[in-house]
């Protein structure tokens, strides 16, 4: 694409899920495919843009899909130690500028959802629709203490690979492939980038929580009924607050629903992308 400096870099090896990347002028690695309205995908802490592979393959049939590596993940440059969720939202705004994207549909998973929520609160005129997948909303005191403790322990213990797998997946054999890929991505993540992002994620759930009453664009809040951290109650609370919001709960799945139930998630995302904005 003309007008900005992008460098093609070799993709990482992650089994059969490999997406070639370009690097934006600001240092963000991204994969772009398809034509039409822009759809931006942001993964969660410890992951990389390949976590969206089932959605990229399907939604690129109708949209210009741009999946990014979050700062400090995959091939993207990191943010400084001490960065907050506000800094991650500013990163996203800079990426939109680099890509000359005046207005996008945005879907975020987990921390990517938190960043997406910050984006629609900070520059709503640039967000046409928002999909908030397995995102948190004002954790209760016990959950807040647990996630802050995990963030504080990273400096001493490094990237936790077992805890997320236990929280994010059930024991069903259907999740084995997604579980294996997730473990590999956690093993590949840059420890410093992970620590910076996780700290921002742990402290960020109550920064933009009150934005939803002002959001007029179509807003889908999706999670699994077994997700212990991004709960159905959270999704339903946010959906009730948003002017054009709705919740979708996928039964029998946990945190990584876009990988463990890709067909269902793709159908729900197609429905979301086809929804017209009707301000209330």
UniProtKB/TrEMBL annotation:
Protein name: Alpha/beta fold hydrolase
A GO MF label: hydrolase activity
Hydrolase found in the keyword field: yes
AB hydrolase-1 domain sequence ranges: 39-266
UniProt key word Isomerase: no
InterPro entries with a match to the protein in the record: AB_hydrolase_1, AB_hydrolase_fold, AB_hydrolase_sf
A Pfam cross-reference name: Abhydrolase_6
Cited Gene3D superfamilies: alpha/beta hydrolase
Keywords: Hydrolase
């Amino acid at each position: 694409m003309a007008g900005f400096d992008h460098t093609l870099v070799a993709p990482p090896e992650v089994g059969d899920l490999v997406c070639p990347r370009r690097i934006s002028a600001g240092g963000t690695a991204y994969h772009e495919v398809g034509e039409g309205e822009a759809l931006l995908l942001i993964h969660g802490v410890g992951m990389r843009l390949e976590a969206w592979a089932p959605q990229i393959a399907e939604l690129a049939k109708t949209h210009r899909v741009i999946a990014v590596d979050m700062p400090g993940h995959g091939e993207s440059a990191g943010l400084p130690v001490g960065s907050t969720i506000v800094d991650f939202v500013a990163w996203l705004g800079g990426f939109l500028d680099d890509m000359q994207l005046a207005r996008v549909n945005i879907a975020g998973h987990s921390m990517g959802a938190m960043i997406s929520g910050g984006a629609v609160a900070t520059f709503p005129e640039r967000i046409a629709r928002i999909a908030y997948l397995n995102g948190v909303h004002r954790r209760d005191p016990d959950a807040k203490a647990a996630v802050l403790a995990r963030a504080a322990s990273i400096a001493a213990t490094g990237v936790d690979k077992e805890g997320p797998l236990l929280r994010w997946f059930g024991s069903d054999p259907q999740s084995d492939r997604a579980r294996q890929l997730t473990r590999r991505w956690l093993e590949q993540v840059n420890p410093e980038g992970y620590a910076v992002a996780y700290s921002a994620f742990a402290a960020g759930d109550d920064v933009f929580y009150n934005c939803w009453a002002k959001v007029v664009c179509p807003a889908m809040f999706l999670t699994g009924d077994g997700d212990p951290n991004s709960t159905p109650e959270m999704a339903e609370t946010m959906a009730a607050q948003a002017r054009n919001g709705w919740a979708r709960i996928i039964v029998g799945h946990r945190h990584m629903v876009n990988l463990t139930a890709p067909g269902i998630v793709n159908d729900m995302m197609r429905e979301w992308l086809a929804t017209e904005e009707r301000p209330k």
